[in-house]
Structure formats: C-alpha cells, structure tokens
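Lab notebook page, bench 4
Experiment: in silico fold of construct C2
Operator: M.H.
Input chain length: 643 residues
Purpose: comparison with the prior construct
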Amino acid sequence: MPGPKLSLFSWLDRIKDMEKVPRLLVWAVQICIFILSGVAAFLLRFDFTVPAAYFQYFVWALPIWVLVKTVVFRLCGLDRGWWRLVSIHDVLWIAVGNVLGTLASAAVIFALAPRGFPRSLYLLDLIVCSLATSGVRVVTRILQDSLRNGNGIEGQKSVLIYGAGEAGITLVRELRSNATLHYRVAGFVDDNTQKLGLAIHGIKVLGPGTALAELALRHKVDEVLIAIPSATGRQMTDVLARCHQAGVRCRTIPALAEVIQGRGLANQIRDVAVEDLLGRTPVRLEEERIRAALAGRVVMVTGAAGSIGSELCRQIARFNPAGIVGFEIAESPLFEIEREMRQTFPQTAFHAEIGSIQNRARLDEVLRQYSPSVVYHAAAYKHVPLMEAHVFEAIENNVIGTYNLAMAAGESGVEDFVMISSDKAVRPTNVMGATKRIAELLLLAQQNGRTKYVAVRFGNVLGSNGSVIPIFKKQIAAGGPVTVTHPEMRRFIMTIPEACQLVLQAAVNGRGGQICVLDMGEAVKIVDLAKNLILLSGLRPDDDIAINFTGMRPGEKLYEEVSTMLEETVPTAHEKIRIFIGDRRPEADMLLWLERLREMCATRDIGRLVLALKEIVPDYSPSAHLLKRVIESRPLAATAEQR
C-alpha cells in the first residue's frame, strides 16, 4: 500500500522550519557562484566567444578566484549567518567581502599568472559575483517570507498593525521571521496622512485610524496590533475605542525599556493594559547613585507587605543590599512577601519582622538587632473615608507612629530616613491628609542630626490595595454596576513600580529636611478610567456594564493637588522630582503639639483634636462629616462633665 503523499505545503513547512542553512551547503553554493561569476566575466568581456589566446588566463584565474574568495569570505564570516534574516547591513558587508576578495585575487593573479591579463575582467567578476552572492541571500529571504505568509497555512490570524513607524516596521520583520507566530499582516493603519498608500516591506498603509472599522471588515481582520510604544494615554484611549467600535481584539507591544529587558518585540505582544492608557513615560533612574546608596547596606522597610512597601522591597533587592528588614503588623501578607522575596531574590537576605510603629520598644528592638543604614517608611493608614471615622487611630499611627520611628532611627544611627507622603497633604480636606502633613512637619523639625530625613509626596498608585482598579475589576466581573463617586472626580495616578523607582531616586537626590514632590503628569478622570477598564474587558460602558454615581465620600475632594507644582516647588537634577519649599516649624513647637495630640487621643476629645489639627495645619479644611461628628459629641461631653 503506497505511503501518504506529502502535500506541497507540508513540504514547504519542512523547508521553512530549517533555522539555519548548513555550513557545507553554504560553501557549495558560494563556490558555485564564484565559478559561474568567473565564467560570466570572461563571456561578457569577449561577447560570449573567448579567443583561444585568452583561454590560458581563464585556466589561471578561475581556481585563484575560487580559492582566494573562499578564504576571504570565511575570514569575513560570510559563510555563516541566517540567510532568512538577511538585511541591508548584511548586503553591504557582502559587498565589502567581494571587494576584498577581488583585490586579493588580483594581487595573486598579478604575481603568478602570465602577463597581459585583461584588467576589465576584475571589474566584471566583481559586479557579477556581488550581485549573485547578495541576490541568493535576498531570494532566500523572499522565499521564506512568502512561504511563511502564504494563505495556505492553517491557523494564521489576519492582523492590522496600528502604527507604520519604526516599531511597526520592526514588528513586521519579526512576525515574518518568527515561525511560531501565526500572523498574516493585512496592512498598516496610521494617522499620518502622508503615509497613506505607501508600501512598507511590501505591506500597504491602508488608511487612518478613523477608518479602522471599515478596514477591519474589508480585510477580515481578527486582531489589531498597536505598535505605538510612545503613545500618550489619550492616544491609546482613542485607539482602544476605535478597536472596540470595529469589533476586533487589540493588543500592543511594550515600550523600549521593556523590550531591552525581554526577548524581542514580537514575543512580547500582549493585551492592552490600563497602565498603557495613562501614557506614562519610562522613569530615568540614576542607577549608579542608587546602587552606591543601597549596595552592601541593610535597608528597613515599614509597611513591607503593603502595595508600596512590597514593591520597594523588590526594587531595593535589585541593588544588592546586605539585607532587607520587612517590618509589618499584618501577619499573613508579611508571610507572603517573605516567601516571594526568598524565591525571587535568594541572594538577598530578607528578615520578616512583625510589629507596630506605635510600639517604640519593638522598634528599638528591631533596629538594634539589624542596625539598618536606610529606612523607607511606608506604613500608614491611607483610606480617606475610613480615617474620617477613625480620627484618633489616624493620629496615633500616621503621626505618633511616624515620630516613634523617626526618633528610634535617629538614635540607632540610621543614615537615611525616607517617608512616603501623599498629595492629600496639600491643603488637606481630610484627616488622612492632615496627619500626613503633620508627619512631614515633624520630619523637617527633626533635621538637626546625622540622620537625613526626606519625605516623598505623590498621588494615587494604580492597582494598590483598596484603590479603584481592583474594585472596578471585581464590579465588572460581577456584571456591574461600576460605582464612581462623581463624574468630575480626578486623581493623579501612576503605577506602583514607577512610584517606587522615583522614591529610590528622590532618596538619593534629597539633602535632608526636604519634601520631594514627584511629577504625577495630568490628573485622570475616574469615570474615564472606569469606561476604559470596561472596554478592556471586551464590554461596552453603559450598555453591558452600567456606571452609577454614588456621591462624594467623607473627606474627599474633586481635585487633588501635589503641591501647585510650579509655584511652591523648585526643580532638581531629575526631571520628575521637585522640592517643596513650604514652611518649617521649630522643633520645640512641633514637640509641644505632639504631646497635646497624645493627650487628646488619650482622652478621646475629638472637638479639641480637630481644632488642634486646624492650628497645626492652617490650610486644613475639616469635612462636613467630621464637623457634624464634633457637634454631636458636644452634648455627650457636657453630660459626662455634669456627672
């Protein structure tokens, strides 16, 4: 019974799966080209009729050409390489090899062959040999690309590439050269009207993004690959909306910094993430300065299991510290980050320590045991509405706890103390922001010894515990509705890794007794964030998932401020970090206020406490919710006094 016949495409698959042409085959092809180019040079020189008198020159020249060029091509590395990936650079290098081969051959022929060798033969041989050696490689690549993008290959997706710039062109090259990626590029989409109709690597620019729906339908496109790594958040949002309108899936490629750390562009095609819609530019880190500050030193991170604290631990571990002390009150999250750190960074000792910053004795104990040189203070109560209902706890943790840690660090010889602050400390309208501002003032007042105290102020971080993104995702997964407090609510938002990288940078930029303010870019409307997240889930806002407005919560304001960036800050050497130039208070005044706050927390006198917050931070505006609570507490206090 005859065996199964190999189809044309299965045979072609075998050919195109060859990752590299065998070396012996390359030598054989090149030797054949050297022979044929020599023969062609003589035929062209003598109009295809070589006189008998010149036949002796042919006998001398041909073996010399073959031998010398083979040696030259070997020395130039032209007998190796990936023919299916040949580029302009390779063609130029082939030309150089041919010129060197011709010059070397000419020298040998001049020394050994009989006199009277026609000099025009050198030029003819050079031209023919150059065209043939580069042409065979180009033809190989064209054949490979044609076979790989043939319509007969099963499982291919028809895609449009949004962006006909350098990233889009690079992506086309990789899609054609990577046999594991089953994509067929139907065309480019680009908003630059000057590119309309151009053919790039044989692929046409079909139209602008506004015509995406029509183009996707006409070319039966399954997916859109967004190749605009430098796109702003607004541009990415527009592209996402167009893809959703066209009813096609959209994916993107990473920014250059991610590509450098990864495995090439095509291998990192991924779904569009909400981070892409922020349009944040990559952070430029002065890594040598940060390494000099952290390498070989013990670093302590408070709130080590929180969103910011855990990412700080990961970022710090990159700079080879002698050890990281993770100080945290929450047992289970601390257990998880300890496991992660030991698995991901086995070369860095991670010491998990349970404790509260309100416990001065425990702080002294840990600081004595590990003697850290640097402390990053990320432990804080941060949820605004919750702290409006727990004023005393906010003071005890965010103010008194911070003071405990700052004093313990100074007494134990810590060199650098960095506190994570908040944009809510600027003209605060809530207790959380007021406590952060008081903590900043306490640090500034303590700057009179060897410890360098720095506060770093920034806004919301994307995906942190309790932030809107995890909440929105849960609401979308449950079928909605997605709840937003107010249609005009805006927040400064950055990613957790970016925030932590800038914290490390600010720590080496600050001189002590300073508040560093991070550049947060433009404020983002929370309702737009909700709509984009629904789109990324493949659903339609208001149609598939409803958006409900629930009203502003206690202590919230529509617009957060990082510091009125230009009026109250001065620039630093880093473009994303500025220094706040607000007032400083004498240490004696701040210590007096601290004792009063302790007393008010002990007596649970909320009325006096709110007045004290207002006196310490004059631009603090208590929320209506808190003022109502103060008023309601007065009759209770009067009754207690009468008793």
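Observations: The domain at 287-458+509-517+561-600 is CATH 3.40.50.720 (Rossmann fold). The longest strand covers residues 183-189.
Next step: discuss at group meeting.
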